[in-house]
Design brief:
The complex is a heterodimer. Chain A is α+β, with helices and mostly antiparallel strands. Chain A has 25 helices and 52 strands. Chain B is of the alpha+beta class. Classes of the chains: A alpha+beta, B alpha+beta.
Amino acid sequence: MSTRLATHGRLLNKDRAIRFTFNGKQLKGFEGDTLASALLANDQMLVGRSFKYHRPRGIVAAGVEEPNALVNLGVEGHFEPNQRATTTELFEGLLATSQNHWPSLEFDVGAINAKLSRFMPAGFYYKMFIHPRPLWKHVYEPFIRQAAGLGQAPKGRDFDSYEHFYPFCDVLVIGGGIAGLHAAKAAAQSGAKVIVLEQTAHWGGRAPVDGGEVDGKPVDNVVDELIAELSEMENVTLRARTMGAGVYDHGYVLGYERLTDHQPDADGPRHRLWRIRAGQVVTATGAIERPLSFAGNDIPGVMLASAVRDYVVNYGVCAGDRTVVVTNNDDAYRTAIVLKNAGLTVPVILDARSLSEDSALVAEAKAAGIRVMMGHGVSKVLGGKRVTGVAICAQAGEGAVLEEVACDAVAMSGGWSPVVHLWSHCGGKLIWDNNFAMFRPDVDKAPKGADGAPFVSPAGAANGHFGLMELLGDAHAMGQGAAKAAGFEPKRASAPEGSCVDQAPMAPVWLMPQGASVALRSKSWLDYQNDVKVSDVQLAAQEGFESVEHAKRYTTLGMATDQGKMSNINGLAILSDALNQPIPQTGTTTFRPPYTPISMGAIGGEARGDVFQPIRRTPMHDWHDANGADWEPVGQWRRPYAFVRSGERVHDAVMREVRNTREHLGLLDASTLGKIIVKGPDAGKFLDMLYTNVMSTLKPGKCRYGLMCSENGFLVDDGVVARIDEDTFLCHTTTGGAESIHAHMEEWLQTEWWEWKVYVANVTEQYAQIAVVGPNARKALETLGGMDVSKEALGFMEWADGSLGGFDVRVYRISFSGELSYEIAVRASEGQAFWDALMAAGEDLGVMPYGTEALHILRAEKGFIMIGDETDGTVIPQDLGLHWALSKKKEDYLGKRAHTRTHMSDPERWQLVGLETLDGSVLPDGAYAVAAGTNANGQKNVQGRVTSSYHSPNLDKGIAMGLVLHGPDRMGEVIDFPGTDGKTYQAKIVSAVFYDPEGEKQNV
Amino acid sequence: MSNAVSAMHGATWSDGIADIAEAPLQGMITLRADMKDKAVKKAIAAATKVEMPGPGQANGVGDRGLCWMSPDEFLLLCPYDTVAADLARIQTALAKTHALAVNVSDARALFRVSGPAARDVMAKLAPVDLSPAVFQPGMFRRTRLAQVAAAFWMPNADTFQIVCFRSHAQYMFDLLKTAARKGSKVGAF
């Protein structure tokens, strides 16, 4: 059984017990434990079921590479699935449950899949469920989704908060092990600004566990000294619990800081995403131990040798009383020695190698009285939910059992793989190292920055240097090199002297025993999390999936949440063997960020709740809100759709507002309309190019409506232009167009017409603009008193500066409703006060505010087009009967040439008309008019569509506009619009101007 | 005139790691001209009495300041009440050159983030190097804060003054409060 030792546990505070719950069981750990170490201390070896076959799975590793121990953490708004127990720090009240089993962890019905595993090889789903086609979507997929999968997605709102942070540094060191810390020191001594990120809560990485000396001092003391020294340096920032998640172009690196995962009751954000800009990046990301592929290597109790050692040294936990060590290298002997020194039993070390003489570690193990069997390995592990023993065989043979040894844990080591992920994210290349049977960074092919110079350097174990001596030398050189590359002069200092342990070479072992039978290979796991075995990869190769990327996708090797941290190299070695080619020729799959999964919350950062999106508010927003505004999003703005009175339906409010505006007086908050100042000697020329009609002839004091097209001729915006003085124009744009048209203007001025003397400024928000509309509009302004707003003083399409009710105003006499109408601009800071003054002045004149829907109906009654309704990016002015606004005099304007393209001048283009249903009902918006016959897809032919449709309260019937084939030539014709409600609406083609066609109402 | 009110009516908040306050109305004039042109330089200097700022800088004399927005755009800060007079003076001074001067005082909202952790708050929102060695009083930055356009400078060592569009005032206030919430000190400066 796994249990807590009386001694050991360098990371624990044994004075502070911590209670937690796993699958409803109350358990106890210590401060400093991870969830994994605490579970082991409580003999909870079984922690989950595998993805496909629902095999019992236990903790294998002690770090981020853990593939099995994924748990659900927390409840409700704190619930999160797929959390690795090995990287979850224990806290009081922690709630964890295991995943992927039904009905319980101990008894899982899905385990029947394991019995059927022979019938579910790689590619099983592809082969089995392809026919008949429709069954996939309706039967197979829902069933498989139910059966497969890991944790469940959280359902409720996340209670936690998150944020981003933008740090900058000269040298970023990823990894706070001995190599990272020393590289940081070497870089920081140059004066460079250095940030060091460490993913765990502890500094020093493996060094304090594996031991050794630096400059004659024990390595864990050296780590403490380094931390003390770096903490003192002004130019160094140390950050634990922060993982380097991804390296991107231009020295952009994401760091993932976990602030309250280990203290959920603390204030502040749970995660913080560091969006770092670094001059140089040092990846001191260490190495990950590989498992060995033997039958039953997934049975709970089989663990990585380094993890077994970590649990003893760091947490005072042993995986078992009797641990068999199986290895192809010297490093695993450290585990055997640590176990022996802790008073535990190591019945045998199975070493797949045959060494001619004992290396230092082998000799030390033998001296400690441990039996060592060279040239031997595991034929298979005995046990089901727990290891009960191993069957020993010769590594060279086919697995004939020589001896069975009882044990309750197996510590395996297949060698080490440098963590090259962050090196590779941005294009760093790898080379195969035959001595260590691993891929290591090819330092001559580093990721390069915009200047063509390398910006990432690997250091220490991440660069394939494992002994303290080589590792520190490398870290020193890389730290100094990074500082130099960042433009600093490294201090002249030599690397510290790390102690050296002579090790015998490791031997690559990709399968144990070498000639394992199919039966054994079918139980030799490569990818624990996705249930991929040696036999699956061999099958993939046999079936022609020769590219490593294809084999990965066919078998799902390395595709789980751990992205194959433990399994990838073993998998591609098996693939290479099956293809009979060297490993480097097979290559690796692509390393993509993030290094381990990061929370969606961290990515979203602060953008949730009130600040999910910026909502733009006009100066009168609060008044609207307090007066029944039914809000409509228009771009980022919120505009009142209608002002709904109590007891009123929204539709009734709209009808009331439309009628009142035609009969009395309406106020519209038009502040959101874009207002762009265009000034300079060439302003007129510039506007003549931007608008389809002529603006340069406009007289100061006058207004003109204009259309803007893109260079491809499509209508992009419209609005009224006012000439302020000889050099200055004010262009109104649509609400959504203010920023884009401003940018459009700047783009043309900066890239094409840069010699023209024109400056533009977006002054949209400087003004609150209120449309005062209706027969009583002039009376209302006269009530306020001030400037002369009579027909004679201020005619239609004129503007004037003046004063009304004591406010400085600019009054535009323009109309989008067909009524007598003034649009009045005041300083935004006075917007609410002016609105109040207008409401008071209009009190006896029947004033009512109206919203955007009333605005739409008023303009539709007059046949005025709306950008975004009548246009959709494919419509040109000619489609809308706006030929009058296309200047024939001008030599050029944006869109002019495009309009001569054959498709643009095609008489078959649908044209704008009015539409009236025969029964007065409202045509469905967007409905298509059908024509005789069908198209190539067997669909009915179409001959037009509805672009705007409303009920007009003034005309008491439905009115609509639409684009119809040859529409203007077909007045009076009735066409059919099938609705999605099953009815067919019959509508007559009419003029688009439904109301006051002579324009008498605005001309007063 | 007394009718003028700022977007957030001077809202304040001090329940976190930094104090947040909406500042009173501020006169602001956008100046666009060829800033390398001698006549332009002379006219701006004469009309504002403030030395022309270099890239990324803000210069101030008394209650007037000039901020560098882009190679051909400055932002002039002046008292809200004198903006009309300042604008007229500049327009007169620049009458003979190609230039644009326009009042944007009411298009903006102004916020102040203050306290020892003010840099932390700002560095959560703006992709700008805000370490004390790099960003100091006298500097000016036109950038973004989370999802909206903004510009800021430091009136003193632990205060930031932020300009954003008036329509974003509520978002900015909420955003700054979020970034300054309790327990969220970064401690990286």
